[in-house]
Write a structure and sequence with these properties.
The protein is α/β, with parallel strands linked by helices. The chain contains ten helices and seven strands.
Length: about 270
């Protein structure tokens, strides 16, 4: 069932992303052109053009993405004592292992690279705390290294292997956020720092700001307390109403649709 759910979520996201509709509109316009119906051909070409304008006009996506990124505020870590933290969780989604890492000997990092850089920062800041990198791959047909194994390679490249020998842990089976939490829960119980009463201390949770709301809710549904450390912000506090960038707009809509589909799917299936 989880595999079917995973495949369906990917299919739904592909079908509703605005830029993908440009292809559909263009194909329909060509179809009607071949059928010698120029009025319908023009209409679908106009729809394709309108779609491109909406995607490229950044405020159209940023207004919604900003609300999602602001849903969980940043945590001021300076106000939290080290002894009150159980460990550090880094959710996958920023690293490309796969064939690139194998064939080229290099690990590629996506635009969500702040998940990795913030992880290195906190691992150095809290050297005695355990950390878990969680993630296999979000692809339908993954190949090569898992994200967790790729992060392990990055740890070695950063010269942190010996320093983290006793604190580093990796979860390399999860394909989505729900599976992240399911696989992380027993690991947090085994490795997490505890209070004097024996209770597990809340863990720092590193993930993209747009993803933090969904991730935190799923942890809460499983009865797990986390301290949000959102990174990878894509929006500022104000909107530039004249900005147009098709590449940035495409990325914004992809992130936005991904989270909306995830929230709806988890809500419908009772996971949220």
């Amino acid at each position: 069932m989880d595999t079917i759910f995973f495949i369906l979520s990917k299919a739904v996201q592909f079908c509703i992303e605005p830029l993908n509709w440009v292809i559909i509109f263009v194909l329909l316009s060509l179809l009607f052109l071949s059928l010698r119906k120029p009025h319908l051909c023009k209409r679908f070409l106009l729809l394709a053009l309108f779609d491109l304008l909406i995607v490229g006009w950044l405020p159209s996506s940023e207004v919604f993405l900003r609300a999602l990124e602001n849903a969980v505020p940043k945590t001021n870590l300076s106000q939290i004592a080290d002894s009150d933290i159980g460990g550090i969780i880094i959710l996958g989604g920023a690293i490309e292992g796969g064939n690139i890492a194998i064939d080229r000997g290099e690990v590629s990092i996506y635009s969500s690279a702040e998940r990795v850089t913030k992880a290195f920062e906190l691992i150095r800041k809290y050297p005695n705390l355990p950390f878990i990198f969680s993630g296999y791959s979000g692809r339908l047909n993954p190949k090569g290294l898992s994200e967790a194994d790729a992060f392990k390679q990055l740890i070695a490249e950063q010269g942190l292997s010996q320093e983290t020998e006793k604190t580093a842990h990796y979860e390399n089976q999860s394909r989505n956020t729900y599976e992240n939490v399911l696989y992380l829960r027993p690991m947090m119980q085994d490795f997490g720092a505890r209070s004097e009463s024996g209770a597990i201390q809340p863990w720092l949770l590193i993930t993209s700001a747009s993803h933090m709301y969904r991730a935190e809710k799923i942890f809460q549904m499983q009865g797990i307390e986390v301290i949000p450390v959102p990174v990878d912000y894509q929006t500022a506090n104000s909107l530039n109403w004249t900005s147009f960038d098709l590449e940035d707009g495409t990325q914004n809509w992809h992130k936005l649709v991904h989270e909306v589909v995830g929230l709806l799917a988890y809500w419908i299936t009772g996971k949220l």
